[in-house]
Amino acid sequence: MAINHDDVKLFERQRLTDEEDDGGRVTGSEVIDGNVNNLFQDISRIDRTIGDVALRKAFIGISTDNNDIYLGSL
Predict the structure, then answer these.
(1) Per residue in 47-62, pLDDT tens?
(2) Which element (helix H / strand E) includes 49?
(3) Which residues of the chain fall below pLDDT 50?
(4) H or E stretch including 29?
(5) E strand map for 1-74
(6) I need a labelling partner for 20 at 20 to 30 A (CA). Which of 39, 44, 55, 58 fits?
(7) Domain definitions of the chain by residue range
């Protein structure tokens, strides 16, 4: 059984904050596409005006039941 592009998922870190520890390690919680505020909080009007930048760490992983080697997906 091959690894499909649906098996490649984005996972959250332990804490979705802007602390110095970068939020911790990977969790098993998948970032669901289309949900509001998955990784980032709402942007305030002041931050939007001054061009504030927020970075968040996330993890990419393979979620499948087989032991196939990931060589890329189509």
Answers:
(1) 889 998 877 778 888 8
(2) helix 45-50
(3) none
(4) strand 26-30
(5) 8-13, 26-30, 59-62
(6) 44
(7) 5-62
